[in-house]
Each structure stands twice: as C-alpha cells, then as structure tokens.
Write a structure and sequence with these properties.
The protein has 338 residues and is mainly alpha-helical. The protein contains 16 helices and four strands. The chain has a four-stranded mixed sheet with strand order 1-2-4-3. A hairpin with a 3-residue loop joins β3 and β4. α8 packs across α9. It is globular and about 65 Å long.
C-alpha cells in the first residue's frame, strides 16, 4: 500500500515563477450514489482484545494455532529460520507492556469498530451494485505491535489497526513523515477499494509498457474506488492534502505542459516512471512543491475526462478497457487554465 502527502500551494513549472493561488474550491460533490436495495453484512472479526490479553508463550502458541492465516501470511512466519525463533519473537512482542498502550490508542480512535465495519459494508454494497457476482471478503482486525499494516486477498482482509491510529498515538510506524501521514483511520477503506480497483477489476495490456498505460491504470483504479465510496473526498483516495488537490487543479494546464515538454506519456523508461508515478515527497521535475505521484493524479483526470465524454459507459466497461492509448485519445482530455 503506497500513499503519501506533501504540502502544496502551487506546482511551479520550469521557468514560470508566478502561478495563480490555489483558491478556495467548493466542497466536493458526491459522484453517482448507487441505489443499493440490500446492504451487504460483512463477516467482521476483531481480535485486538485477544492479542492484548496474551500473557504467556503458551497463550501465543494457542492463538497462532487458532489463526494460521494470520500466523503464516500476516505475521510472516517464513521470515524466521524456525518455529522456535518465531514464537520467541512474537511472545516478547505480544506480552510487552507497550501493547497495552497500543490497544488503548486503538480503542480511543476506533471505539467498538462499528464505524469501520459500516464503511466496509457501504463500499462492498456499492461494489456489488456494479458487480452483482461480487462476494464480500471476511475482515479481521487486530494489533501486531506495528509489525504489518494490511494484507488482502479476494476472500480475506487482515488489518493491523495500530498502524492506523494516526497523530496523537504514543507509538507509530518508523517511516518518513510524508509516508506516515497515510496511516490514519480515514484511509483504511479507501485504500482497500483502491487495491481492489487496481488488482482485481482492472484490465490492461501487458505488452504496453508506456508511462501512459500506467497512468491510465492508476486513473481507472481511483475512479473505481471513488464510485464505491462516492462521497469520500478525492484527497483521501490519492493521499494528498486538500491543499495539494486544490493546487493541482489550479495548475492543471501547467502540469500537463511539463508532461508534454518532457515527453512523458509514451516513454517506457523506468526512470521516467519513477519520477512521475512512484512514491516521492515531491515531483521536483514539475515543481518544488508539486506532490509526488502526480502522474497518477493526471491519469485519474484523463479517466474522468473519458467518462464525461462517454456517459453511456458503465464502470465495469471502463475497467475492462485494456487499450490505454485509445482511452486517452477518446477522452478529449485537454486541461485549461482555471
């Protein structure tokens, strides 16, 4: 799961030294809200208390025996040379006093977890509207002592809530601030839906190695996620601050100018993709305050433009479009100065 934040007032492009201010955009409107007739009820299991109550090595062994998927896939048994070292490490961690602090912070932020469960049910119900055959995965939450954040498959999602406590927590993951800002309560379900949109429903042409193909793939995933949570702000999905979103919109044409000048779209260079699509504090090639992964945001704008130009296209039809260049050319995408 890759997400990042960096404050943006304006993207400074090349020798253009003066840009319009970000302005004060109106509150984002919801996109289409599916008329869901029957809400999905998810299979939701909270194990945070169970982990926090482990006091002995025997209790840790018993817990792992009852939850082999957590043991093998989430706590990564394969990274240890043998069971003895694995159990010893987990026992020291799970019985440490700081786990009580993590549990208290999780309780403070997530309460009884009903709000999180409800948001998952909303997202999955909306997803089933578009994909009637969709079967919601089981969800397991726990605390791990900041060992892992999230693992998901088409049938199971495991989330370590202590990773997502957010500001104010005594203990937080050890990472750069621009990455750490991703780990908040509000980002959990949008992140899951983004991963669904990227990995399970997104068709692409594996022979197309252009930056444009990656941009469109990201754009489709963001569009997909937004339509499963139609009233969640764009900034939450793309993990920008509100100011960054406003700045990108205000300087949309100048960002596009840099893409054209640097011949980004049809480049197959790994370096180019690293600069414009990968996790970075800023996209310095565009401007010293332009957020990283700006190519993903542009890809999302291209997809929005396509759907605006083709309102008859359904979400599944969009996701099945594997020809990124065709989608781009039919999007009539041409950002203008606001």
């Amino acid at each position: 799961m890759k997400i990042r934040f960096q404050f943006l007032i304006a993207c400074i492009i090349g020798s253009l030294l003066l840009l319009n201010s970000c302005g004060s955009d109106k509150e984002e409107a919801c996109v289409f809200i599916p008329p869901v007739k029957e809400k999905i009820s998810v299979d939701y299991l909270s194990l945070a208390d169970s982990v926090a109550q482990l006091e002995t090595k025997e209790e840790v062994i018993d817990f792992l025996g009852r939850h082999p998927v957590i043991r093998d896939n989430f706590l990564r048994r394969h990274l240890y040379p043998n069971d003895a070292e694995f159990i010893e490490d987990l026992s020291k961690r799970f019985t440490n006093n700081y786990m009580d602090t993590l549990r208290a912070d999780v309780k403070r932020v997530f309460g009884d977890e009903q709000e999180l469960k409800k948001q998952f049910e909303e997202a999955f119900s909306n997803l089933k509207y578009y994909y009637p055959d969709f079967v919601a995965p089981k969800i397991i939450t726990l605390i791990t002592g900041l060992d892992n954040d999230m693992v998901m498959s088409d049938s199971l999602i495991i989330i370590s809530l202590d990773y997502f406590i957010g500001p104010g927590a005594k203990f937080r993951p050890n990472m750069y601030d621009y990455l750490l800002r991703q780990y908040t309560k509000d980002n959990i379900v949008p992140s899951v839906m983004l991963l669904y949109g990227m990995n399970w429903f997104n068709y692409s042409n594996p022979e197309d190695e252009t930056t444009l193909a990656d941009m469109v793939a990201y754009g489709k995933a963001y569009y997909f996620a937004k339509h499963t949570l139609p009233c969640v702000a764009d900034s939450i999905f793309i993990w920008y601050t509100t100011e960054e979103i406003k700045g990108a919109k205000s300087n949309h044409d100048l960002i596009w100018y840099r893409f054209i000048e640097d011949q980004v779209l049809y480049s197959t260079s790994h370096v180019t993709k690293q600069k414009f699509l990968s996790e970075r504090p800023v996209t310095i090639e565009v401007g010293e305050k332009c957020p990283g992964r700006i190519g993903q945001w542009v890809g999302w704008e291209i997809v929005k433009s396509y759907m605006k130009a083709h309102p008859e296209t359904t979400l599944p039809q969009l996701m099945e479009m594997a020809d990124a260049d065709k989608l781009f050319k039919e999007s009539r995408y041409k950002p203008v100065r606001k």
